[in-house]
Amino acid sequence: MNDLTIDDIHRIRREHAGLTQNMGFDEYKADLHKEIKPLWDLLKSMKPDKKTKMYYCPEIESSVVAESQATYQTNN
Predict the structure, then answer these.
(1) Which residues, including other chains, have CB under 8 Å from residue 51's CB and lie 6 or more apart?
(2) Core vs surface per residue 28-49: b (16+ CB within 10 A) or e
(3) What secondary structure, in 3-state letters, does the chain show?
(4) What ranges do the domains of the chain cover?
């Protein structure tokens, strides 16, 4: 999908307009939510569970930042 031409974009816009022209706002919103839910769930599953922790040691006079290791869920 990286090599879309202007004609491709206009064709997609016409198709989208044709598919959604008779939809009410609530129906359009529900359809959009249904389409993006799998991607949204994937992004949420990739979010680290814990926040970044910052430790300060006065003897060293520098900050050490440790991030929790991200866990990824896959659909098997």
Answers:
(1) 68
(2) eeeeeeeeeeeeeeeeeeeeee
(3) CCCCCHHHHHHHHHHHHHHHCCCCHHHHHHHHHHHHHHHHHHHHHHCCCCCCEEEEECCCCEEEEECCCCCCCCCC
(4) 6-66
Q: What is the pLDDT of residue 10?
A: 96
**Residues written for the chain:** 76
Residue appearing with tokens 């910052």? 54
Measured CA to CA, the distance from residue 11 to residue 3 in angstroms comes to: 14
The tens digit of pLDDT for each residue in 23-73 reads 999 999 999 999 999 999 998 888 776 666 666 566 655 555 556 666 666
Beta-strand pair 62-66/53-57: antiparallel
